[in-house]
Amino acid sequence: MASRTEAEQWLATLTSLPTASGRETRVIDWVFEWVAQRSDLTIAADSGGNLFITQDRESLLDPVLAVAHMDHPAFVLTDVHGGFEFRGGVDDAYFRDAAIEVVSGEARSPGRVVEYEPISRSGVAEFDGPVAIGDIAMWSFADADVSPGLFRAPACDDLAGVAAALAALDDARSRDDLAHFGVLLTRAEEVGLIGAIHAAKMRTIPKGARILSIETSRELPNAPIGGGPIIRVGDRATIFDRDLSNRVVSSADRAGLRHQRKLMDGGGCEATAFGVYGYQATGLCLALENWHNRGNLSAVEAGDLDAAIPMREEISLDDFHGLVELLQVAAAGVDDPDREAESLDRVYESNRHYLG
Q1: What is the DSSP letter of 265?
Q2: What radius of gyration, in Å, describes the C-alpha atoms of the chain?
C-alpha cells in the first residue's frame, strides 16, 4: 500500500520525465519497472503501445479502469540542426525566443527557439550541444517541487494522473473489494486522443469495463485548485455517461470524501473517445494552473501577448491525494444500487395519484 510520501515521490518523478506524443519511452520504461516490483500485477502493451495493468486475481465484477495519458506537449527534433515539430496545443506567443532544453541520451543541453511556423507547428531551435532526430525538447524549467499547498512540475498533464492511477492501484492490491480495479495508460493524447481511440477500436479494453478517465484540467472560477478532486461530468465536446457519473458522485458522498462535481469544458478528455466507441466512461480530474505550461493564460487570451511566459504546471497536493482516494471509492461503489432511480421511484409511488 502506497504511503503519501511514496505517492508524492512517484508524482515528482513522473512529472519531471521528458515525454511527448509518440515519444513516451521514458514514462513507459518507468511504469514497467514499477510493475516489475509487484509480483501480483501484470502489464501488457497493446499494438499501439498503450499499457494495460491488471491484478492477478479473479473477480466476478466487470473491470473498473483508471485511464491516464503518458504524453505532454513538447518539441520533437526532426533533424540534427535543431529543426522541430511541436506536438500539443500551445498558443503561438509562447514560442517567441523561448528558452528550451533538449534531452539527448542522458545529456541535457539548453537552447532557444529561433524560428516558429504556426500553421505547420514546426520551427528551428539552437542548442549548446549535439542533438539527434527524435530527441525531446521542453521548456526550460526546474524539476518538480512543493510549496505550501501546491505542487509544481514541468508536466502535471497528465503525468499527475498516471501517478494517481498507480497509487490507487497499489492500494487496491490489499483490498478484497477492489480485485476488479486496473489501469490503462495511453499514448498520443495531446495530438487527438489517438492512444485512447486505438485502445477502444482494437478492444484493448474488456467489454463491459467501466472507465474512469483521469485528466488535469484548467482551473475554472467555479472549479478551483484546492477545492478537492473533480468528478468531471463532461468536457468541451460532450457529456459523459449519466449512470456512471452519478454512481461515482454517490460513492464519494457516502464516503464523505471532499470533491467537486463540475463540467470542465476548457479542453477535451479521453472519456469522450471511449464513449463514442460504446464504453461506459466518465471523467475525474485535478484543477490545474498554467495548463500546457501557459503562464498568464487569461491575460494572453485577452490580448496581452507579452504575458506569454512558459511556466511549470501547478496542482494541489491535497487534491492529488483526494484523487487517489476517489479512484478507490469510485471503483468500490460503481456496482451499488442506483440511488437516484430508487429515490425517483419513491417519489413516483407517493405522488402518482396527482395524475388522476
Answers
A1: T
A2: 21
Count of H-run helices and E-run strands, the chain:
9, 19
- For residue 133, the enclosing domain spans 74-139
* Spatial CB neighbours of 280, under 8 Å, sequence gap ≥ 6: 209, 210, 211, 241, 243, 244
What are the pLDDT digits (tens) for 231-276?
999 999 999 999 999 999 999 999 999 999 999 998 889 999 999 9
Q: How many CA atoms lie within 13 A of 287 on its CB side?
A: 21
CB atoms closer than 10 angstroms to residue 37: 7
In a domain, 346, yes or no: no
Predicted confidence (pLDDT) at residue 1 exceeds the cutoff of 80: no
Q: Strands (DSSP E) along 204-279, which ranges?
A: 210-218, 230-234, 260-263
Residue 356 domain flag: no
- Cβ atoms of 179 and 55 within 8 Å: the answer is yes
The amino acid that residue 45 corresponds to is: A
Contact 291, 218 (CB under 8 A): yes
Provide the whole-model pTM. 0.95
Pairing between β-strand 64-69 and β-strand 181-186 as defined by DSSP bridges:
parallel
Query: What are 228's three cell numbers?
Result: 478537492
Judge contact between 246 and 340, C-beta under 8 A: yes
Task: Enter the C-alpha cell of residue 208.
Answer: 463491459
Provide the pLDDT confidence category of residue 147 given band limits of 50, 70 and 90. confident
- CB distance 264 to 238 below 8 Å: no
Q: Is the Cα torsion angle 44, 50, 56, 62 positive or negative in sign?
A: negative
Grid cell for residue 57: 486475481
Specify whether 308 is located in the same domain as 220.
yes
